[in-house]
Design goal:
The chain is built from 4 helices and 9 strands; from the N terminus they run E-E-H-E-E-E-E-E-E-E-H-H-H. It is of the alpha+beta class. The radius of gyration is 17 Å and the shape is globular.
């Protein structure tokens, strides 16, 4: 069973992040959400910096706290996100950085037993997807999803992809496919831009995943 106990203050509200210290399982037929579905299903998306938090009294690891630095989707930026079972990398748990040129596969840590990423290096920039529950925000992290990928900078490839999808999901459903097709064609035409090439491939995949 997943444990959801993490709480962080946010201007009188609360930001909560669900995590696990046990192996998780999924129901038969579960499908990992596409990036478009993950963006659409999130009430807010933030770029956050990993900082070292308190020492976990029960398990002995240094907690990783996430400090939002930029809002990619939503109406306001949370001040802090704390994650009780998200750990700072150490000898027993080593963080594995996300591949900055991969827009499809999740960080390998999601396959380590908890279905969500849990180990980070201090100073990492992470794109975190959030969902609002009453006055609180929880991390929207379906099992094995790209919900907590780290990026090398605020203009990294993954951030660019998320910004494109945020614009697309803001459109009425009937116009989304047209917008995706137009953006895919525009990016594909930029032959000398390696980021544009990968983004065009991502949108082409999304068009097939979301008919």
């Amino acid at each position: 069973m997943w444990k959801q106990t993490i709480i962080a203050a946010y201007l009188g509200a609360t930001v909560t992040i669900p995590s696990s210290v046990q192996a998780c399982s999924v129901v038969r037929g579960y499908r990992v959400p596409t990036t478009l579905q993950l963006v659409e299903g999130s009430d807010a998306i933030v770029l956050a910096k990993v900082k070292a938090g308190a020492l976990h009294s029960e398990f002995g690891f240094r907690q990783a706290s996430l400090t939002p630095v930029a809002l990619l989707k939503g109406d306001r930026l949370p001040e802090q996100i704390s994650c009780e079972y998200c750990a700072i990398s150490r000898s027993r748990w080593k963080a594995v950085a996300s591949n900055p040129r991969d827009l499809q596969e999740p960080n390998p840590d999601v396959f380590s037993g908890g279905c969500n990423r849990q180990v980070f290096d201090k100073g990492m920039l992470v794109v975190a997807f959030l969902k609002k529950e009453g006055d609180t925000y929880v991390v929207n992290a379906p099992p094995f999803s790209r919900a907590l990928e780290d990026v090398p900078s605020s203009d990294a490839l993954w951030v660019k992809a998320i910004k494109i999808y945020v614009k697309i999901v803001a459109l009425p459903g009937v116009k989304r496919r047209q917008a995706m097709e137009a953006e895919q064609a525009r990016l594909a035409a930029r032959k000398n831009d390696p980021d544009a090439t990968l983004l065009a491939r991502e949108l082409d995949r999304a068009l097939h995943e979301n008919p």
